[in-house]
Amino acid sequence: VKMGEAHGADVKIPVNALDPIEDTVVIIGSGNFGKALATRFSSSGVKVLVGSRHDRVLNSGCQTISIEKAMIAGDIIILATPFQCLGTLPLDLLTRRQIVIDCSNRISKCKSEELSHAEIVEGKVPSGVEVVKALNTLSAYELEHSKTLSKHVPIASDSKWAKKQVGIILGRIGCQTYDFGLLQTSREIENMPHTFFPSWHVPLLVSSLIWLLLYFMQFGRMYLCKNNMLGWYPTYVSHKDGLIYSSLTNMMLKDIIKTCDGHALNLLAACYLPGVLAAYLQLMRGTKYSEFPKWLSNWMLCRKQFGLLMLFSASVHGIYYCMLFDKSVSDSTWNVKAYITAGVVGYAVAVILGITSLPSVSSSLSWREFRAIQSILGWTCLILCSLHCAFNALTPPKYKLFRWENCCFFSTEQIALILPVITLALKLPLLLPCADFRLTRIRRGEDYKLTNGWSGIRIFGMEISF
Fold this sequence. Notes:
Strand content: 5-15%
Number of helices: 15
Number of strands: 14
Order of helices and strands: EHEEHEEHEHEHEHHEEEEHHHHHHHHEE
């Protein structure tokens, strides 16, 4: 059988084979996964037979039968045994029009030149038996404890008829299936359980690099620069008792607090800057149907992860400051009161954004509600957190925001505000009524040339054309 060719292509399937098959599921294997499947099918009203080497009654009430009898007892056979036991199964007893579901998982990833477990099974069953890859992305725990299976189950087979029948029978136990393609794509399905947060690799790497850069800047300011002169300064003289102390003890406390501050603010700006750049591209191109550059598309896909990492850093920063802050706010200067208020409110808004990004919450919101929260509150959060940082740098008489006194190292506030200021500065022109008018029309599907579509204004959701 060639790759991608329907198994048993030389055999004509009778017309009645397109009718629903017998509503009986045979499970080969009585291990944890086999028992969980049997219980799930039984509770859903599906007749289940379990083939096992051991004669016993399962918790679902199913009486096991011999594997040889099970192989010929139903139209759908689920192989719920370890793959290494495949050679001991009497697959030669299978007959035409039976469907075999392979739900085995691999010990290691399937390489491009290797056959999947399902393809190996296909090579061992008689001609006319259809093989379907399914269920390997579910666990016994999910089957036993989840009333509704929210996870979509991929299925792959060379037979559309077999995939349809498997989709129907799995729908009885609450599984939503989607067609993943021919059986050769089962290699990708078998690799799914081996993935480890694939969508987090790039965001976590970028976030870590930003954090390390900011920590290096903090390290340089504290220990490599004094009075605007480069050197090595691991100690300081206390103003209270005149004794010399090691400043390196701050590496695990104060330096981390300062780093997390700038890290959170830069990640927050990184959530909204790609959307601004995308808006400028759409304005210049005059259409929303032109694809974004790959780097921009990938950046936009990382925004949710950046947001959650931002919330983590902001939480670390806030908790540390709550533990160490010992000043009376009522006796503080105006900028101290302002930066504390902006920081607290900004963090509260960030928490709301983090909660609404959870699938269980976002799925209960309409698109308009979700967009309002993520857009309006998101920009509000960025403005508040930027003000929190700016007010802290405006402490008289130094006004650190506008001074350069740390050798070649930016101050905490300066490096933290670079990306937010760029993001906010680029956002402002997009708020002009004529730009907002054109951009809104483009996102609705209208196409314009560069000089067209500007003859109108949009204010507070109302559009006026000239």
